[in-house]
Input
Amino acid sequence: MIDELRLGRERRFLVLLGIICLALIGGALYMQVVLGEAPCPLCILQRYALLLIAIFAFIGAAMRTPRSVTVFEALVTLSALGGVAAAGYHVYIQFFPKVSCGIDVLQPIVDGLPLASVFPLGFQVDGFCETPYPPVLGLSLARWALVAFVLTVILVPLGIYRNRQSKA
Output
């Protein structure tokens, strides 16, 4: 009974995490379409990371055994680590604007990914990483993304550890 409650708590957390990731993608699309903030290659890679986190979180929430939930939590964490890399490099580029994200190098690669042709509005490169857009609550979008990815990398394994530790 207690194990089921702990597993239920993990699954609810995964659903919440998936919803938050989809909301972040929605916010990015709003800023792109309504505010005219063009996404760079690193922005698009961060969207992919958020989408992967959401997909793995929702699948993990549908699993019934602790082991299968843990597998998808590990995939969520790996996706978030990819997001940390993309967002961290994006923050670095914004601090040092003379360094480019390499739009000439990254754009064809990112635009060649499957979702760029299926949903070009959301997953096709249209801007430069060093373009300064107005901050949201004092932080750039890249910094907010970095915060979200780092929190995911910390909180998901911490939740696993806490739930499995209290089991013993």
In short: The radius of gyration is 17 Å. Helices lie at 2-33, 41-62, 66-95, 103-111, 114-118, 120-123, 141-165. Residues 2-33 form the longest helix (32 residues). The CA atoms of residues 97 and 106 lie 17 Å apart.
